[in-house]
From TrEMBL:
Domain FAD-binding: 25-351
Keyword Glycoprotein: no
Keyword terms: FAD, Flavoprotein
Stretches for region Disordered: 1-21
Cofactor names: FAD
InterPro entries given in the database record: FAD-bd, FAD/NAD-bd_sf, RIFMO-like
Protein name as it appears in the record: 2-polyprenyl-6-methoxyphenol hydroxylase and related FAD-dependent oxidoreductases
Gene3D superfamilies hit by this protein: 3.30.70.2450, 3.40.30.120, FAD/NAD(P)-binding domain
Leader sequence segment: none
Source species of the chain: Streptomyces venezuelae (strain ATCC 10712 / CBS 650.69 / DSM 40230 / JCM 4526 / NBRC 13096 / PD 04745)
One MF annotation (Gene Ontology) recorded for this entry: FAD binding
């Protein structure tokens, strides 16, 4: 494990000098230690960047707001060796699109969706990131952000009111939909205001029927009991979103639940009460010079089907290796612009499908004709596969439409198209956050087109040989270049050799 650099770390804090500012240096300061911020911190450390994470909460969350990991996110966690600690979480092939049942099964290593409590996801990612050397500082509330041509400095109030300042080359806001980084930077965040909301609560000691998006005359009701605790969610048709400064009272959930279902849950014990709405916004730019955003700080959406969590984790994996390469000097600053180009487009598409789902899910009687039309269409396999690809993230293709490239270029590496010959399912290069030049040779021994060129990027791009499945999607290709996030940067069927792709994504060669 590489120890983190502390170029400007202060001497140990003196309790006799509480007014003395704590001055810290880092390559990157990340604001927010939720799943996105912790995933990003781990990715940055894999790439050799020094990172400090500032989090206002003094302890990790005890709330499991998001509990669904989709197929693409599971693949990324697999790439980094993070699935083993999770064991075998419950999986479910059936999801939904706007409350209409949808089979999410598509070809891949982890089809369907997987149920992992957010508390468990955060604990896993924090252990991983800190184990790699990330410095996670809780109880630090961001109050200022100063950006110059050469650095970004985050000013925070630490434990005991201590003034803490972190000067870094880049700052990344991963601090949620009410992002302080976004507010301090004055970033444009256009979109749709909240119009409808869902109330939800985890309640012990109640006995109500399990419901999966049950549409009743007065509204929508969901209930699921697990280990003696029932999560209820309810929306009353026609009831507008409430302007809130905090979480709703349990009494409000009780009242709305009774009006919609006719059931009284007032005798239960609320363990957690929350609301979420259908506001739909996206930053104009995910990057503003030395400041970047990821996760809910970059896009605000209704968390339908767990897409918000997965979108944020995938933002982090896309950004992490690029930002690490830039701060290490192995790639030009312009590589960071590809983060905006790629993830803003993906975010726009996801926000679009979530907006459509919100109308189907929370719309009253006026939505029934559309729901009646869509139900039979989803049963058609092409339609099902199309929507499942959108929800799961398996349909992403970066740079779609580029000339002279193979249709697989820009898509994820389909490992189901490789023959398992006893080696690790995931190449060690990807586990270490490096790129991979993969020779596709039916014999499993050939050098492959471009392998010699890739050797000049040793240390940033690993090499391996694999056998493609006869007749599979990789059949007929001699080699592919895989980015650290698992997407194909080049195939041997593209219009040129791998050198241009190697330069674009990995900078100048290590040696010629």
């Amino acid at each position: 494990m590489t120890e983190p650099r502390r170029a400007g770390a202060p001497a140990p804090e003196s309790p006799d000098a509480p007014d003395t500012p704590v001055l810290l240096d880092a390559d990157v300061v990340v604001i927010g230690a939720g799943p996105t911020g912790l995933m990003l911190a781990g990715e940055l450390r894999l790439g050799g960047a020094d990172v400090i994470v500032l989090e206002s909460r003094e302890t990790p969350t005890t709330e499991s707001r998001a509990s669904t990991l989709h197929a693409r996110t599971m693949e990324l966690l697999d790439d980094r060796g993070l699935l083993t600690p999770l064991g075998t979480p419950p999986s479910e092939p059936r999801g939904h699109f706007g409350g209409i049942p949808l089979d999410l099964t598509l070809p891949g290593r982890h089809p369907g969706q997987w149920k992992v409590e957010q508390t468990r996801t955060e604990a896993l990612l924090q252990e991983w990131a800190t184990g790699l050397g990330a410095d996670v500082r809780r109880g630090h509330t961001l109050r200022s952000l100063t950006v110059t041509e050469t650095y970004a400095e985050a000013g925070a109030t630490g434990p005991g009111g201590r003034d803490v300042r972190v000067r870094a080359r880049y700052a990344v806001g991963c601090d949620g939909e009410r992002s302080t980084v976004r507010a301090l930077a004055g970033a444009e965040f256009p979109g749709q205001e909240a119009r409808r909301e869902l109330l939800r609560a985890d309640v012990a000691g109640i006995d109500v029927p399990d419901r999966r998006f049950q549409r009743l005359p007065g509204g929508l009701a969901v209930a699921a009991c697990r280990n003696g605790v029932t999560r209820v969610m309810v929306h009353e048709f026609g009831r507008p979103a409430v302007a809130r400064t905090g979480e709703p009272e349990f009494a409000e959930v009780v009242d709305v639940w009774k009006r919609v279902t006719g059931e009284d849950i007032s005798g239960g014990t609320p363990l957690w009460v929350n609301s979420f709405h259908d506001a739909n916004r996206q930053l104009t730019r995910y990057r503003d010079g030395r400041v970047l955003w990821a996760g809910d700080a970059a896009h605000q959406q209704m968390p339908i089907g767990g897409q918000a969590l997965n979108l944020g984790l995938q933002d982090a994996v896309n950004l992490g290796w690029k930002l690490a390469a830039v701060v290490r000097g192995t790639a030009p600053d312009g590589l960071l612009d590809t983060y905006h180009d790629e993830r803003h487009a993906v975010g726009r598409q996801v926000l679009g499908n979530i907006r459509a789902q919100a109308l189907l899910l929370l719309g009253g009687p006026e939505a029934e004709p559309v729901r009646s039309l869509l139900g039979p269409l989803i049963a058609l396999d092409d339609v099902r596969a199309h929507l499942a690809g959108k929800v799961s993230g398996l349909d992403i293709r970066y740079g779609a439409g580029a000339a002279d490239v193979h249709p697989l270029t820009g898509t994820r590496l389909p490992r189901t198209a490789l023959v398992d010959d006893g080696r690790e399912a995931v190449d060690p290069s990807l586990r270490a956050g490096q790129g991979l030049f993969l020779t596709l040779d039916p014999s499993g021994t050939g050098p492959g087109t471009g392998a010699a060129a890739a050797a000049a990027w040793a240390g940033r791009v690993g090499t391996a040989v694999a056998r493609p499945v006869p007749g599979g999607v990789l059949d007929g290709l001699d080699a592919v270049l895989v980015r650290p996030d698992g997407y194909l940067a080049w195939t041997s069927a593209d219009g040129a050799g791998p050198e241009a792709a190697l330069h674009r994504w990995f900078g100048a060669p290590t040696h010629l």
